[in-house]
Structure formats: structure tokens, C-alpha cells
Design goal:
Layout (H helix, E strand, L loop, with lengths): L1 H19 L3 E5 L7 H13 L7 E5 L2 H9 L5 E5 H4 L4 H4 L10 H11 L9 E4 L2 E18 L14 E5 L3 H9 L3 E5 L4 H6 L5 E5 H4 L5 H4 L4 E16 L8 H25 L6 E2 L3 H20 L5 H14 L12
Parallel strand pairs: 1-2, 1-3, 6-7, 9-10
Antiparallel strand pairs: 3-9, 4-5, 5-8, 5-9
Helix pairs in contact: 6-11, 6-13, 7-12
Length: 334
């Protein structure tokens, strides 16, 4: 009897210890623990205690290292850019499709829709033998084209210019080739440095990167930011569902939806901090040229299996809800 009691006590201790073990959450922020993305996940971690967890955050400034640690099983959950997270969930990862979200208003609608409970099944995916679930999407902001010489104000002027692309995102390389520029493979940790040092002529980046990474060095006296968003940058929080309570992902997604107004206010504040002397507005005709070439490229990438076709339909619906007179709203495709 005494022996059975000891065994039962030991099992109780082991179960309690296992349940008390904090889930490891790997968080990428280019600016480290001082960045807005990391701060957002810190607040999420605090809120998640109400959902039956005690997570431990691990900060990274190297996104490739997060990906490595996910693959080696060191992360029970992870937060990284949607472009990189696309391999874990193509539906959510396609929200960053090139030209798919050309304004903050459209981005708000798109993210809210994706995180809605109607899409809960699409947010669960199988990657080999492993299951993953999207538990949140955070807004980083629209990425604009920065050029070292403002004479590159038309698509034909970009031909044969060096354009930094993230090496793991086939979509960027494909689109840069489409406009006949030269893709220069880079990583998220060095693409701005290449621009600042003159190794590339062009880079696409959100306002989030402008001040902390001193992009004014690359712009100098001749450079400009083309005031036309080519991609909306978001980050996905993805969990291994078996490591969390059953309703955790749904509760987490609801929390992220509630944070969206604040996140978008932050993006607008950062965009307003970019000096007006750098901002280059395109003519209406040139904006239309950008829209058409991005649309053609996006549809081609969807046919190749890079983007999720359902997400492309969602994004078009969001665009045409906000901008009903847009040329694409009266034609088929996507």
C-alpha cells in the first residue's frame, strides 16, 4: 500500500512538473528586444497566462536562426515575418503577397478576416509529420521602394539596377526579374546595410526600418522613397498546438485582433516620421503601371504554387471593398 502511494505521488509530481514547464516561444525582431514586435509579444505572453500557459520568450535578431531552431524542435511557438513563415502555413503566409495589400485600411480588413474563426481550419497545417497552427498576425507595415537616385521614378528607369531581395522568398526574385532589374540575394539582417553602403541601388522596406537602421545614409542627397506600397509586411505567431491547451490558438487570435488598431496607429506614426524631402509621389499613370505589373506577377506566382489562391481571392475582395473604382474590380482573375 505504501509502495503504491509513493508511485502515485511520484506520478503526480511528474505531471505537475511537465504542466509547469514553460513553452518556449522564439521571437524575431530585427531591432531585438527594444523593437515593437518583441514588445507586442511580451504583452501577449502576459495575457496568455489567462489561457493556461506560462511561456518563456527567446529573442532573436537573426530570422534564419529562428527558422533553424524551429526545425530542430527548440521552439514550441515562433514569431517571424509572414514571408518566411509561408512554409509553415501558406494561407496566412500569402497575406504578404506582392501588391496584394496596397494600404493600411485594406491590411486591417485582410488581417481581421484571416484571423476570424471562420478560417480556423485554414490556419492549421501539416508540415511533414509536424502540425502547426497560426495563433496571431501582427502588422509591421507597408514596404516602400527606396532608391539611391530619385531619377528612378519610373519602372523603365529601374531596368538593370541592383535590387536587394530576400534570398528565401522566390516571389521577390521573380518580380524583380519581371521588371528587368538585377536581384541581389540578401538576408533580412543585411539588406538595409547593402543599400546604405551602395552595394545595391534599390531596396523595399517598411517605415519600421527607416530610423533605427539609418536608411538616410543610403538615400543621401539624391535618394527617395517611392510613395507606393509594394508589399504589406506582417508577422505570424505560429504554435505547435499539441504543446498548448485546446482553445489556446483561438483565444490568442482574438487577442491579436484587439491589438490591430494600436498596431496600425504605430505604423502611421513611423511613416509620419520619414522626412518629407525623401518622399516621391508617383503620377496616377505610373501607379497604375505598378499595380498592373504587380497583379500579373502575383497571378503568375499563384499559378506556380507560391501563393495561396484562396488568400488571393480574400485580398482582392478587401481591395475592391475599399477601392471600388480600381481597374481590377471589374475584371476576372484572383
Amino acid at each position: 500500500m505504501k509502495k503504491q502511494f509513493l508511485i502515485l505521488s511520484l506520478m503526480t509530481i511528474l505531471v505537475s512538473t511537465a504542466s509547469a514547464t514553460p513553452q518556449q516561444v522564439c521571437v524575431f525582431d530585427l531591432l531585438g528586444k527594444s523593437g515593437e514586435s518583441y514588445k507586442l509579444i511580451e504583452e501577449w505572453a502576459l495575457a496568455s497566462k489567462q489561457w493556461g500557459t506560462s511561456v518563456q520568450l527567446r529573442g532573436y535578431q537573426d530570422e534564419a536562426k529562428v527558422d533553424q531552431d524551429v526545425k530542430s524542435g527548440k521552439c514550441d511557438a515562433f514569431y517571424m515575418t509572414s514571408m518566411r513563415a509561408r512554409t509553415y502555413n501558406k494561407f496566412a503566409g500569402s497575406i504578404d503577397a506582392l501588391g496584394g495589400v496596397p494600404s493600411n485600411d485594406i491590411a486591417m480588413k485582410a488581417i481581421s478576416y484571416v484571423l476570424d474563426k471562420r478560417n480556423s481550419k485554414r490556419l492549421v497545417s501539416q508540415n511533414g509529420k509536424e502540425k502547426f497552427e497560426v495563433a496571431g498576425i501582427g502588422q509591421i507595415g507597408p514596404a516602400y521602394i527606396f532608391v539611391r537616385d530619385r531619377s528612378m521614378n519610373q519602372l523603365e528607369h529601374i531596368k538593370d539596377k541592383k535590387f536587394a531581395v530576400l534570398h528565401y522568398d522566390h516571389a521577390q526574385t521573380s518580380m524583380v526579374k519581371r521588371i528587368e532589374a538585377i536581384p541581389v540575394k540578401s538576408d533580412i539582417s543585411n539588406f538595409i546595410r547593402k543599400f546604405n553602403q551602395g552595394e545595391v541601388d534599390i531596396v523595399a522596406a517598411p517605415a519600421y526600418a527607416f530610423k533605427p537602421l539609418e536608411m538616410s545614409k543610403g538615400l543621401g542627397s539624391k535618394g527617395a522613397m517611392i510613395n507606393f506600397p509594394v508589399v504589406n509586411v506582417t508577422a505570424d505567431l505560429i504554435i505547435r498546438p499539441e504543446k498548448f491547451p485546446p482553445q489556446f490558438a483561438a483565444q490568442s487570435r482574438e487577442w491579436f485582433i484587439k491589438q490591430l488598431p494600436r498596431s496600425f496607429a504605430m505604423v502611421k506614426r513611423m511613416e509620419a516620421e520619414i522626412p518629407s524631402k525623401y518622399i516621391l509621389n508617383l503620377s496616377r499613370d505610373e501607379q497604375l503601371n505598378y499595380q498592373k505589373i504587380l497583379r500579373d506577377g502575383r497571378m503568375d506566382l499563384t499559378r506556380q504554387g507560391i501563393y495561396d489562391p484562396m488568400m488571393m481571392t480574400v485580398l482582392k475582395r478587401a481591395r475592391c471593398t475599399v477601392e471600388r473604382t480600381n481597374f481590377e474590380c471589374s475584371i476576372g482573375g484572383e
